[in-house]
């Protein structure tokens, strides 16, 4: 790299900013000489670091690494209306240094600077925190030297990714829901499927990663949620959790089916995707719009980051990019081996509600056959017990199941396969009804708790206001008033 570094560094810049740097266009002249700001006194380490940063800035101007689309897509650099590039990633942690947020060139410069000048900590330093950026730098250095550049040991990533046991990567679509505006089009997330030591892939080993809108209060409590989501008020970041937690939220609580597609990736692409997920989870935050830049488009961008640039698919729609439509182009795209990039898995995860509706119909079809195959003396009581097993009242259904047990067992009533199928279907129905009952009980208990808290808060506020008035404590009165404000910052100021 030294052949492309500036040869002369002078401290003769005439216009300098408050940060001690000249404007970018004045930092290097046409001869590739560096012009830094005069400094009366500075620690040697600070002087050395600024010079190193300036030299690396000059190197990139000569080499053009930061102009590579592969670099610019890492922090979503795009050209703005005034011509200057703007980073789509708004997370400060997504950059190796504060100046990295100024431009793609400074992004690269501060990454190189931190890689070589900052001491590595237990986690491996910036090369293990911004692994995607570090991989780009290693690839470029390898191209310069003609020899591979070894990656640092990142033990935290190795434990988390567990690539040896990663069996599959799936794209999962949670069915649309009317619960909130943001779920009208469904929700898209990745499922990381892991195998155990026996080669099986039990659900409890799987994890999910998804982009979610960042919010300070629950969306259902924010009356402006829909408008904010449409106009880009929120940001979105990447979150990870166990698949069973996602299953409980979508399939059990919200009654949403989960449909799956397997992502066709090479071993290297799978490792690159895990590297990208690791990087973005700790250092990614993006503008969020319901229709144009949402959970689906951000997730597809994340997967594309792990693919060669020539395999980019794109997902923008004319008006909107809902989750289902973003999958269409991916399903039509072929990998290097000719297989589709996405392969539908014909085994959806049905919600408890959907499963209960299906099994309820199956149960109704089985009952006449069971009655017809039973002894004549038991048919009337059996038909009546079946009717009671569909009663709205849990007590009546419970009594009906007890009666069915006394009728079916001694009399050997009905074909055994039909009886067992009816019992399995009944278990599915009762599981769903039990979940609904528990959720309703939880909601009532939560509403009661919140009501008690509001009452206690209001009583305490009245006492504090009375105390402030009787003692002339204006500061206390002001604080109590701010604690009850709708604005979060004013509330926090009141608490302080």
Word description of this protein:
The chain is of the alpha+beta class and 496 residues long. Helix content is 50%, strand content 12%. It has 18 helices and 11 strands. The strands form 3 sheets. The protein has a 7-stranded antiparallel beta sheet with strand order 10-8-7-6-5-9-11. The protein has a two-stranded parallel ribbon with strand order 1-2. The chain has a two-stranded antiparallel sheet with strand order 3-4. A hairpin with a 5-residue loop joins strand 3 and strand 4. Helix 13 packs antiparallel against helix 14 and helix 14 runs antiparallel to helix 15. It is flat, with a radius of gyration of 31 Å. The model has no long low-confidence stretch (mean pLDDT 87).
Entry summary:
The chain has 496 residues and is an alpha+beta fold. It has helices spanning 24-27, 44-63, 69-72, 104-117, 126-129, 131-145, 155-161, 225-231, 243-253, 267-283, 295-305, 323-332, 352-372, 379-388, 394-411, 416-471, 474-483, 488-495; strands spanning 9-10, 34-35, 77-79, 85-87, 166-174, 187-194, 207-213, 235-242, 258-263, 286-287, 342-349.
Shape descriptor: flat
| Continuous helix count | 18
Strand content: 5-15%
Give the helix level as a range of percent.
Answer: 40-55%
- The N- and C-terminal alpha carbons lie at a distance of 53 Å
Number of strands: 11
- Average of pLDDT: 87
Write the layout of secondary structure elements.
Elements (H helix, E strand, L loop, with lengths): L8 E2 L13 H4 L6 E2 L8 H20 L5 H4 L4 E3 L5 E3 L16 H14 L8 H4 L1 H15 L9 H7 L4 E9 L12 E8 L12 E7 L11 H7 L3 E8 H11 L4 E6 L3 H17 L2 E2 L7 H11 L17 H10 L9 E8 L2 H21 L6 H10 L5 H18 L4 H56 L2 H10 L4 H8 L1
Parallel strand pairs: 1-2
Antiparallel strand pairs: 3-4, 5-6, 5-9, 6-7, 7-8, 8-10, 9-11
Helix pairs in contact: 2-4, 13-14, 13-16, 14-15, 16-17, 17-18
